[in-house]
């Protein structure tokens, strides 16, 4: 690899570039590298090309949190949710052979190949809460974790999980996880349930909390009643489970 003055400048720049996460042309431009210069460096071996306008440092290893942080800084509302968020916050009843990272977001998007080739991920844009809920409510980084990686708090993650029941999650798994999350914070859960727009989620929260005699059953019951009566909600999941949720 032939060295140039530009290459030498890039060597000094290595000390300030983030490790273990992708770099795009905007990141590099902030450091004084034009897109054409970045392309030149990639051809010269100073950068590894990941995708259109996206690179990594040669010899570097992309970390899970580094990849997620990169995406979340560029996609408002993107976060780790549902069953994954519960597991990362210590609420789980079994260990998957290979973890699938459940990502939730606000806008349709295709997860980049450089992410899914390294980490098993799923993505959905289910609108679970109304527009009146404060932006980012119930989304926080993990204690001691990457500050840019937002993960649903247990209360929000539980409602996201209930939304997935009958689709990608079984009722039995939801029941076991709900029982493991007995100590959900009442005030946080009440705010989330108030803004929940999906009838199935509210009724399922009530049904499971009453069946398991959870401390937050009264909050779920109050929210269910506040949403009004309506018709009985009946569905059969992909694995044959029958969901019969009364008003």
Q: How would you describe the overall organization of this protein?
A:
The chain is α+β, with helices and mostly antiparallel strands and 247 residues long. Helices cover 41% and strands 13% of the residues. It folds into two domains: 15-56, no CATH class; 64-245, no CATH class. It has helices at 5-13, 25-30, 35-44, 64-74, 82-88, 113-116, 154-164, 171-180, 186-195, 199-211, 217-226, and strands at residues 23-24, 48-51, 54-56, 79-80, 101-104, 121-124, 139-140, 151-152, 233-236, 242-245. The chain has a three-stranded antiparallel sheet. Strand 5 (101-104), helix 6 (113-116) and strand 6 form a beta-alpha-beta unit. The longest helix has 13 residues, at 199-211. The relative contact order is 0.10.
Describe this protein with a few key phrases.
247 residues, alpha+beta, 2 domains, three-stranded antiparallel beta sheet, three-stranded mixed beta sheet, 11 helices, 10 strands, elongated, disordered N terminus
């Amino acid at each position: 690899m032939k060295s140039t003055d530009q290459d030498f400048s890039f060597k000094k720049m290595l000390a300030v570039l983030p490790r273990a996460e992708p770099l795009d042309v905007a990141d590099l431009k902030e450091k004084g590298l034009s897109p054409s210069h970045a392309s030149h460096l990639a051809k010269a071996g100073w950068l590894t090309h990941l995708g259109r306008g996206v690179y990594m440092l040669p010899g570097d290893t992309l970390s899970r949190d580094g990849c997620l942080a990169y995406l979340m800084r560029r996609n408002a509302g993107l976060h780790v949710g549902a069953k994954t968020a519960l597991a990362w916050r210590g609420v789980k009843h079994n260990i998957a052979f290979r973890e699938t990272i459940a990502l939730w977001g606000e806008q349709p998007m295709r997860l980049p190949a450089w992410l899914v080739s390294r980490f098993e991920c799923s993505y959905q844009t289910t609108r679970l809460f109304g527009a009146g809920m404060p932006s980012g409510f119930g989304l926080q980084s993990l204690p001691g974790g990457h500050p840019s990686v937002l993960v649903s708090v247990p209360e929000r993650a539980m409602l996201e999980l209930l939304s997935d029941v009958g689709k990608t999650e079984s009722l039995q798994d939801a029941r076991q996880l709900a029982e493991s999350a007995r100590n959900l914070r009442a005030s946080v859960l009440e705010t989330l349930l108030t803004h929940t727009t999906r009838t199935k989620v509210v009724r399922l929260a009530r049904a499971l909390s009453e069946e398991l005699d959870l401390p937050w059953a009264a909050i779920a019951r109050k929210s269910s009643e506040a949403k009004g009566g309506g018709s009985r909600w009946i569905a059969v999941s992909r694995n044959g489970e029958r969901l019969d949720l009364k008003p």
